[in-house]
Amino acid sequence: MIATTDLATQVYQVFIKASSEKIWQAITTPEVSARYFHGARIEAGPERYVSHGPDGATWGDGPVLEFDPPRRLVHEWRSMYDPDMAAEQPSRVTWEIEPQEGGYCKLTLTHDKLDGAPKTAQSVSGPGWMFVLSGLKTLMETGASLTESGLPAGTAA
To answer: Largest CB tally within 10 Å, which of 6, 41, 131, 140?
Structure first.
C-alpha cells in the first residue's frame, strides 16, 4: 500500500483481486462493511453516507458529494464516535476504484480537507486507514476478515 505522510491530505492505494462491483458493494453495504471496518455498518447512497457502530450508535453521517457506482464515491466525514473529533470541521473521503488488466482493481482512498480536523487527521492517519483497507483487501480476496480465522468451523489454526 502507498500512503502519504501529510496529515491534511492523506492518500492510500491498494490493489485488490476483485471486481469493481464487489469492492463497491463492500464500501457501501452495512453487512459487508461491518466485517472489515471496525464493526461499522456503513450505508452509502446517492445522498447520504451513514455509519453505525456495533451498538447502533451513529459514528458518522454526512452528505454524499459524488456517487458514481462502481467507480467513485465522495462523501463528507465526521468522526461522531468521539466528542472531541465530532466538534471538528467535517473532512472529505474519496474512494476511487479503477479496474486493471488481470482481474484486479486499484483502490485509491483520499481523505482530505483535514486542516480543520487535526484530531481526526491523527486518528485516521497511517494505521487507521491502513487497517481498514487491509481488512477490505483480505475480505475481498479470502472471504474472511483480518479478525476471522477463515478456517471452517471446528478447525484449529
So the answer is: 140
